[in-house]
Amino acid sequence: MFKSKRLKMILSAAIALLFGLSAISGAEASAAAELSSGFRQLNHAQLLSDMGTGWNLGNTLEAAIDGKPYETGWGNPVVTKEFIAKVKNAGFKTIRIPVSYLNRIGSEPEYIVEAEWLDRVREVADYAISQDMYVIINMHGDGYKTVEGSWLIVDAADQDTIKDKYKKVWQQIADKFRNYDEHLIFESMNEEFDGDWDDPKPADYANLNDYNQIFVDTVRKTGGNNSARWLLIPGWNTNIDYTAGDYGFRIPDDTYRSAEIPASEKRIAISVHYYSPWDFCGAESQITQWGAGAVDADRTVSWCQEDYMESQLNAMYNKFVKQGYPFIIGEYGSIDKTKADPENNTYRRIFAEELCSKTKKYGGVPVYWDNGYNGSSGFGLFDRNTGLATQQGIIDAIMAAKEETPDYDPGVEPVVVKPTPVPDGSFVVTYDGSDSGTVNMTIESRLKLNIDSWTLEFKFSGDQKITSIWGGKYTQNGSSVVITNADYNGRIAANGGSISLGFNASGSGEKPTAFKVNGSLAAGSAAGPEIKYGDVDQDGSISSLDFAAVKKHLLGIEILTGDKFTAADVDGDKSITALDLGYIKKLLLGMSAYEDFPAVGK
């Protein structure tokens, strides 16, 4: 929507000083096409699970005055990391960041985008990605005829110039984020159309298809992680009928994608928006109620109700999801009309929950449109100044939406994502409680990478029986217990991330002493290995071989996991840095003792 209404691989200076490492030049970096070691290849099912439910940072980085975007141009405040944290804490896992470029793009033939603007876009994206959220960055207002400075016009005469400019701008954006991991998704454009609400003209739609192809080719050719990240492609005006129907939309060829992507998998998703019926969702009218539960016939319309929503999303499934292309509802929502009808928010909640449930049912991700405006006719869910929720009821409805059981034949076997296998010692399990009664547990990761699901196994020594549980799902067969993650806590972040769970148990017996997580023995278990800090190769002594192993880890040559990771973390901060290397070096030079390792005293 466009409304004027308003890694953790840190090669520190200490490493360079210790080893005289030379930095890789920008030219050399851009020439390499390998994926970074932390980049995760997500299939369709994993992507949908990870992205969850999304939210738009609307009317901010796309806000333009006199043809130039300004972050605060339409009245919203400067974005902060603290505000993004409030959005995450509300339950949103994905943020779409609409961005306009317009007159921040320089003149031909280079079309250089102002560095300051790209830096700010990256900074805002970092606010979310650093908090393990997914981010969608697009080109938002550059294709609107009604916006001063717009240039991405599908029915303009000089398409060669437009396409050249489009390619060069996206090349700069892609280069800026080239080494970002899978949490970043590019969207080629926004509601691109000719401004005419009639059916699209074939020649104009062909230009839109050309833009999408240029976008995919350009991003992929920048290499690095861009060769494998998910890309988001809209059809005509992000309209479902014009995208899924027979009007000329063409999915771009993905010729230059990474060879590391499994041949059977796609890395392109389809972008559409949902504001139907507009009379309820966006028009400042007396249509304030929606759905089968509407009680006032004068305040509702007969079209675009639940059955229509179902048919629209089913069309996306049949056209794209069956082929392996997920879809993202990049915008949906309804404006506040409580002044006209005090019951309006009830129907806004119903609409949001229904849309989210059906989107998940048919293989998509819903992303709510929030323009930051919380008054009459606003889409806002949060106060942008305080971060406090202004529409907690709608947020609760969005989060309550569950994937419905499909009433169609999916035509494909479901993808089962198994827990990630890991070496012994990759997790630490704590068990806080008596032999029975209430028990609280934590699972802490020592891995370099995130995991997306977990299974905890242990045995009771007596006749204990679990009677209730939180933070997981369990089965018990005799003394053997298997606990799997709940729907909301499958991910355990790398380098010290943890989750909590607990249960009540009856009976008596000794505390369990051996635990397995994802099939590997947890560190600290009775049968587990004893960790000696600094002894990375676990040969009983600390030597130059251990020093070299830590150095290789820092250089990304040979990543340490499990007990080796724990042994290398001699300062006990749940990460491996140049400081750990320095402690080991001082010990080898006789400048310190084993007891001086900070982790030893912890």
Q: Mind telling me the CATH class of the largest domain?
A: Alpha Beta
User: Which percent range describes the beta-strand content?
Assistant: 15-25%
Count the DSSP helices.
Answer: 15
CATH topology of the largest domain: TIM Barrel
Q: Report the sheet with the most strands, covering strand number, pairing sense and barrel closure.
A: 8 strands, parallel, barrel
In whole angstroms, the N-to-C terminal distance is 53 Å
Form type: globular
Q: What is the spatial order of strands in the main beta sheet?
A: 1-4-5-6-7-8-9-10
Structural class: alpha/beta
Any idea how many domains? 3
Question: Could you explain the architecture of this structure?
Answer:
The protein has three domains: 7-32 and 535-602, Type 1 dockerin domain; 40-275 and 307-400, TIM Barrel, CATH 3.20.20; 427-521, Immunoglobulin-like. The chain is built from 15 helices and 19 strands. It has helices at 13-19, 26-31, 44-51, 81-89, 115-129, 159-176, 202-221, 240-244, 278-281, 306-319, 344-361, 392-400, 544-554, 562-568, 578-588, and strands spanning 54-56, 64-65, 68-69, 94-97, 134-138, 184-187, 231-234, 268-274, 327-332, 364-368, 427-433, 437-445, 455-459, 465-470, 472-477, 480-485, 498-506, 516-517, 520-521. The protein is 27% helix and 16% strand. It has 602 residues and is of the alpha/beta class.
Secondary structure elements and pairings:
Blueprint: H1 13-19, H2 26-31, H3 44-51, E1 54-56, E2 64-65, E3 68-69, H4 81-89, E4 94-97, H5 115-129, E5 134-138, H6 159-176, E6 184-187, H7 202-221, E7 231-234, H8 240-244, E8 268-274, H9 278-281, H10 306-319, E9 327-332, H11 344-361, E10 364-368, H12 392-400, E11 427-433, E12 437-445, E13 455-459, E14 465-470, E15 472-477, E16 480-485, E17 498-506, E18 516-517, E19 520-521, H13 544-554, H14 562-568, H15 578-588
Parallel strand pairs: 1-4, 1-10, 4-5, 5-6, 6-7, 7-8, 8-9, 9-10
Antiparallel strand pairs: 2-3, 11-12, 12-17, 13-16, 13-18, 14-17, 15-16, 18-19
